[in-house]
Amino acid sequence: MGELHLQYVQELDLATCVAMTDAKGDRSKRPHQQSNPDIYLRIVERNKDGIVVRGVKAIVTGAPYTHEIIVLPTRNMTEKDSDYAVSFAIEIDADGIEMVSREAGRPNDSEAVLSSKYGQATAMILFDDVLVPWERVFLAGEWQFAGTLTESFATHHRLSCIGCRAGLGDMIIGASAKMAEYNGLDPNKVSHIRDKITDLIKYVESFYACGVTSSVFGKETQAGNFCPDPIYANIGKLLQGLHIYDMFKASHEISGGILVTSPYPEDMEIPDVKARLSEYLIGKENIPADYRLKVARLLEDITASYQGGWYSVISIVGGGPPEAEKIEIMRNYDLEERMSHVEKITGIKD
Amino acid sequence: MGELHLQYVQELDLATCVAMTDAKGDRSKRPHQQSNPDIYLRIVERNKDGIVVRGVKAIVTGAPYTHEIIVLPTRNMTEKDSDYAVSFAIEIDADGIEMVSREAGRPNDSEAVLSSKYGQATAMILFDDVLVPWERVFLAGEWQFAGTLTESFATHHRLSCIGCRAGLGDMIIGASAKMAEYNGLDPNKVSHIRDKITDLIKYVESFYACGVTSSVFGKETQAGNFCPDPIYANIGKLLQGLHIYDMFKASHEISGGILVTSPYPEDMEIPDVKARLSEYLIGKENIPADYRLKVARLLEDITASYQGGWYSVISIVGGGPPEAEKIEIMRNYDLEERMSHVEKITGIKD
Amino acid sequence: MGELHLQYVQELDLATCVAMTDAKGDRSKRPHQQSNPDIYLRIVERNKDGIVVRGVKAIVTGAPYTHEIIVLPTRNMTEKDSDYAVSFAIEIDADGIEMVSREAGRPNDSEAVLSSKYGQATAMILFDDVLVPWERVFLAGEWQFAGTLTESFATHHRLSCIGCRAGLGDMIIGASAKMAEYNGLDPNKVSHIRDKITDLIKYVESFYACGVTSSVFGKETQAGNFCPDPIYANIGKLLQGLHIYDMFKASHEISGGILVTSPYPEDMEIPDVKARLSEYLIGKENIPADYRLKVARLLEDITASYQGGWYSVISIVGGGPPEAEKIEIMRNYDLEERMSHVEKITGIKD
Amino acid sequence: MGELHLQYVQELDLATCVAMTDAKGDRSKRPHQQSNPDIYLRIVERNKDGIVVRGVKAIVTGAPYTHEIIVLPTRNMTEKDSDYAVSFAIEIDADGIEMVSREAGRPNDSEAVLSSKYGQATAMILFDDVLVPWERVFLAGEWQFAGTLTESFATHHRLSCIGCRAGLGDMIIGASAKMAEYNGLDPNKVSHIRDKITDLIKYVESFYACGVTSSVFGKETQAGNFCPDPIYANIGKLLQGLHIYDMFKASHEISGGILVTSPYPEDMEIPDVKARLSEYLIGKENIPADYRLKVARLLEDITASYQGGWYSVISIVGGGPPEAEKIEIMRNYDLEERMSHVEKITGIKD
């Protein structure tokens, strides 16, 4: 059925979003142990037309501007969690679906140089007894496969996070170098600036390399599609999440306090203020203060604002937090093999 | 004259701010080398009544709500920079002073739990040929002392930054532990949470310890006041700036995506939405969703917002960036003594 | 009895060592759960003269060259572990005591500049049914106090580790700066060298500051002695253990490959070889190659040899590994207080 | 001529070593500025038969057990350094060549589990007016190409270092996991052990991924061979050098003090001592103490000994230190392109 749905999506050229994260309730309990039975999305009825589902999916990226939702389970399940082992596709405007959306950052802010033009929104999607026709159901109670679906999607998602955030990294590198230049400090020559730019490159290209390696070592599945190598996808995603904070730090060190103390755009529209501040805010000669402010506001937007906060939190916990990635690394890594080498080297075993 | 001014400030119980950071222009040039001669605040005239100053001081914390400004030089000077070696006190409403202020964060945001109540503002202060009477002038051309004034203030300021940010650290620790608890994960028991809380404590208390040590090893000056030990003040400030990013990271890992994807406060006022989301947003049983949201919004406010961005940038570059702190550490550290020990140990010298 | 023993030790000016670490066997089991009942030191008999103990204490620093051993329990105990809750003092040559000693490093190596002169030895002390007279017994079955004794000693020991390793740090700093100088790179001027020297200072002085703060905030006990603050003692010890590796790294980066590729001292005694290599091994003009080799061998000795390995392992796990220190930090830190502040700030509680 | 030499080496199946590192003297000066003109290897004569060279090459890995030496310049040159721009191949036993060799580690130590069997040696090779026939000369005065030769070799070498050290990493991972198991702590289950094993995997596989990516993005040269991508080769080498210290640290934390305090092998041969210690040194039940000691000695050998020190120093400075790798990263990275993206995003340029 998966293949048919893929064809359907491709033929109609649909945009889809993935709804995975449940509300989760008490994080120390499994779905069936929660006091509110709907805190994980579940099947409340099965009839001849399909399944009826109730619950909520949180942090669904892109939900408000896609055609269809693909629902996946958010974790592995036990037999008692069967009603929560559910996966299906559904139109965004199906009966019983409601959405509470929230934008990344504050796109309406006058100084939001990037996020006022480009951005994302996430949504909490409420499923209020929604009927899903059988032909759109991928999983309905087969709890043994919940974990596989979760991990499979997570591996793909983590690989794509790597590429996505490498792009953000390129922008941070470029803007930091530009700020240094506009401050009068050549990023290729001033040693402490060059050192920090190199650090930025090291952060970005090392997690990107994990993505490349995950692709290179990807394997074809029986179904004919490819699955990225999970160890490198998870290490790359893990590094990307950890390093985003180092990237913010380096860009702030390079740029200085102007990122958060530049005058409000509104103040710069008062002619007399603008005239004088435009003189004082010049760094490198012959570069208008306005250029310097534009780059400062870009860096503020992507590293020191609601948008920046969103990037950092989503980088580290979106697509699974570090703890989840570490579990996947250990689950896939052949530790036994390395241990057996040591038995040979030391003569414990031949 | 310093003592008299201190008495005056204490007797009238005045609030003062320190205006130090010049516009700086091209960061690779000294004051007198800049193409715009006013890019560092300077003396443009000396007459029988006092000195007349022109220029701007940027990033003046607290300026809009203090009685007086204390102006200090922002760096060491050479003889050619004499006109820039200037320090004085002036009333906030003296003729020729104008201020362009900017708040830290976005205090008007409905979800700004902390920064809508408590906060700071910085200002750029424009000095448009301001007359400073001689009795309020501390330095006027004595370029040899510019560096001393800068360093002396910086040492005091860096020590105070340490204590200030340790308070922010306590709040991040408390809120992270609270989020874990409300998520159903006991911060004292769940190993990966406990580990990250311990990391947070390690970050905060290690830079705080540098502050304590700087005070313990402080020395009385000839004037009768005390100067903190500069090595520990600078190391503590340096660590505080570097660790704020690690602190944000740990708090995000502990708390999860809710920090930046919780519904807007306005959406939570729609009765039907509020009723349903309040069920779904519960973590630990018996803790209202509203409590969980309040702590999430606090952490968003202080770590993943304009206010959070401000805290990070100001922590790392406010009061001098890491590079300035490293210079001070090396300037004060007795490297020669450690090198001479090595000469003795190795028998190179007796 | 403790006070009397203290007086006795002071009056006779005895050197004592502390024997704490048991063999431990399976680290996932308590003393009484081990298949070998002697794997933790235990009381095998109580009679009118005293207690008879059997077992081993490992990693006893200084044992071979002290007058007396003070035995302490290595962990907290449960009631079933009562026979293992034992503490006493005993002469080094008491009947039934045997020692298998091992030196730190390889003091006999010709190039061991430091460790051939100054060093330590640890020992495994075998207690083969040793009688301890009652007047020398501090604890014999009072399992409730085993944890207190362990923690109390650990806190003192960790504080002293901090001071000890700060001294090692000073030597690494001095020797690294000296190597840079002898390589022709002024440690105060060449930016990447200066940067790494500053890092070294930051590592050493930040953990030392935790020691100072632990002392400043130490508290007098009922017995009249002082106990260091456990939070800062544990954080300082933790940082010291983590940073020793960063210190080795920085010193290697500063110094270069000569640390491990300099000619053997024996080769440098062959006249023809010595004459020619002495020309080639000069770095900075007018500094004899021999000086440069001496400093290189010192750094090799303390960072890249058996002695260096010993310093690193003992720094990180001696006196308790990081995991033990983290437990102590959490046990002593008032997390509840920080959480209650957050309840107030957010209005959850008044 | 390069191709012919390659064929010659392949046909005779010769082992070759690369002699690159000069003695360097004062590191702040170029070759021609040194007071000793021979401190960099140089051409002292050109005649009809070939060139005559004098000087020394240091840290030549494998020199004592190869057939031929390939000499390369160690840095870029200026015109005045022409005599130092020299590259050639020479038989190991040519007239005028003498070698002072030194082994990595202390292969004769009884407890050197690995390094007594497998290991390397480096040598300083003295060139005492050695004649190199013209047909074996690759570069003789063409100073413009010295830098290209250096960088080209460095890129290849750094890529090979990555693969080499990943193997060391596998051994450290396997031995650490084995030590945990023998200590009674399942490396897959005990959370703080599992966490550190995952860290080790992260370190090793992330720098290995940079190597894979460097190969994937390698480019064919005009000569028909392939050159690895220099950015990823340098980042991988840089990470490998920085992380070796973190790897040592994690392995020490996992294993404990036994690494440097286990009894000397000689002591374990005394029957009575062996019998008793063999009981006490058991960790996990049913695993002989001897197995535990073997793994402990392996980890001591590769992380806490002369051999371990050699691995760490050679990892960080061998094949070029971090500062050299950073320079190569910046030299090859297209910073200009990232800066121009920022000009477009901010509207500074269209």
List keywords for this structure.
alpha+beta; Butyryl-CoA Dehydrogenase, subunit A, domain 2; Butyryl-CoA Dehydrogenase, subunit A, domain 3; 2 domains; 4-stranded mixed beta sheet; 4-stranded antiparallel beta sheet; 10 strands; globular
Task: Quickly describe the structure.
4 copies of one chain form a homotetramer. Chain A has 350 residues and is of the alpha+beta class.
Record the SSE blueprint.
The structure is a homotetramer of 350-residue chains.
Chain A: H1 2-12, E1 16-19, E2 42-46, E3 50-61, E4 68-71, E5 86-91, E6 97-103, E7 121-133, E8 137-140, H2 146-182, H3 191-216, E9 219-220, E10 226-227, H4 230-255, H5 258-261, H6 271-280, H7 289-303, H8 306-317, H9 322-332, H10 335-345
Parallel strand pairs in A: 1-4
Antiparallel strand pairs in A: 2-3, 3-7, 4-5, 5-8, 6-7, 9-10
Helix pairs in contact in A: 2-3, 2-4, 2-7, 3-4, 4-8, 4-9, 7-8
